[in-house]
């Protein structure tokens, strides 16, 4: 009798450090109702609802709510520390920055140590390009020897990826692949023109940003700049469903990850709607705003026309990649004009659904698949014991409509809980900081804008 009583009173779980329990939420993607216990920065237990807990624990009501892994954006350009708060406020708990600098490394370390609020930051090194490149800041490599030196340096500096650009010579690209393989650091980014799409992914490039390089490959043409009207028009005219399906099959066979970034194509396709009064501009840094307004002023009218076709093509490729069961994950190219940090992830999810993914598949591409693309599915991207506690609690079921992901109750990043009031306060702080700093540029701006806007000649 006494024993039975003791058993009834015994806690279901004892926390050895202060924690949080989210009670009775539907845990996604599994769909079970659970009490999710977080201790420190990781998920400690998934228990039957109503579990008895022992220890210092903050309770969050998850009843009739949905708990998903935090969202991931695999392609961003962080230019300001304020961007980090904006990601968090949008439910994004991991970002991969693809034009890194040394200051990103110190921010990364501050985030891990809990010295600042924000998503986990993974950053490539500075963009690597060839001598003909046109970016304002880049590492130039002319041959294999220079490429090996740059790769060694970036690996030593603890950058997590080697980001290549359109103009990397073929022998230099090969040297980067070799050095990266040896160091366990992937080569990611654009497809160098000298290498070509299929050759690059068959040769070991881990993620492919944007789908525009698929155009030449599917048309059976040599790579050409996107804003080269005659070539692009010829490629689109030559396009058939069979050609796109063929490249999608070949892509699937390599295991390379496609990061479509449809939202940046959509932004350029609708550049005539770029709104200088968009309220979200308050959360973009002065340097970001300045670069966007400059893009708006200088944009050639041919860009939206071209990008409308390129976006349609990109969506067709996404549908074909899905059909071929090719690895696909979410990235946005945020930092490009009117591709808003944080917010853009939700736009990309909409575009993926419009391209034929189910809402559940789109959510998967922004969570577990994105973690897989980084080789970190054991670390985050799932709601399971031992995973980093990166979570998003929402009021409606995102498996029915991804818009539910914006109906937030709160966000957890590395075990730190932010309710909607906390997130609003973070945003207000960012806007206040930018207002008081005026329009003085804070950081040099490097993104893929030159790629999309066709600068740098043919
Ligand atoms: Zn980019």
Question: What are the SSEs and their pairings?
Answer:
Layout: H1 2-9, E1 13-14, E2 19-27, E3 32-39, E4 42-47, E5 53-54, E6 57-61, E7 66-69, E8 71-76, H2 82-89, E9 92-97, H3 102-112, E10 120-123, E11 128-129, E12 139-140, H4 144-156, E13 162-164, H5 170-183, E14 187-189, H6 197-202, E15 207-209, H7 213-219, H8 229-238, H9 241-254, E16 257-259, H10 262-269, H11 286-298, H12 302-323, H13 343-354, H14 359-365, H15 368-373, E17 391-394, E18 408-413, E19 416-419, H16 420-437, H17 449-453
Helix pairs in contact: 2-16, 4-5, 7-8, 7-9, 9-12, 10-12, 13-14
Zinc ion binds next to loops.
Question: Summed up, what is this model?
Answer:
By secondary structure, the protein is α/β, with parallel strands linked by helices. It has helices at residues 2-9, 82-89, 102-112, 144-156, 170-183, 197-202, 213-219, 229-238, 241-254, 262-269, 286-298, 302-323, 343-354, 359-365, 368-373, 420-437, 449-453, and strands spanning 13-14, 19-27, 32-39, 42-47, 53-54, 57-61, 66-69, 71-76, 92-97, 120-123, 128-129, 139-140, 162-164, 187-189, 207-209, 257-259, 391-394, 408-413, 416-419. The protein has 2 domains: 12-68 and 389-419, Urease, subunit C, domain 1 (Roll), CATH 2.30.40.10; 70-374 and 441-453, Alpha-Beta Barrel (TIM Barrel).
List its traits.
458 residues; alpha/beta; Urease, subunit C, domain 1; TIM Barrel; 2 domains; 8-stranded mixed sheet; 4-stranded parallel sheet; 17 helices; 18% strand; globular; binds zinc ion
Q: How would you characterize the largest beta sheet?
A: 8 strands, mixed
Examine the coordinates and then state which fold CATH places here, giving the name of the CATH topology of the largest domain: TIM Barrel
Q: Uncertain segments of ≥5 residues (pLDDT<50)?
A: none
Bound molecules: zinc ion
CATH H-tier superfamily of the largest domain: Metal-dependent hydrolases
Shape annotation: globular
Radius of gyration: 23 Å
Task: Please give the share of residues in helix.
Answer: 25-40%
Can you identify the CATH class of the largest domain? Alpha Beta
Structural class: alpha/beta
Taken together, the total number of domains comes to: 2
Distance between the termini: 85 Å
Beta content comes to: 15-25%
**How many separate helices?**
17
Please state the average pLDDT score: 93
Number of strands: 19
CATH architecture of the largest domain: Alpha-Beta Barrel
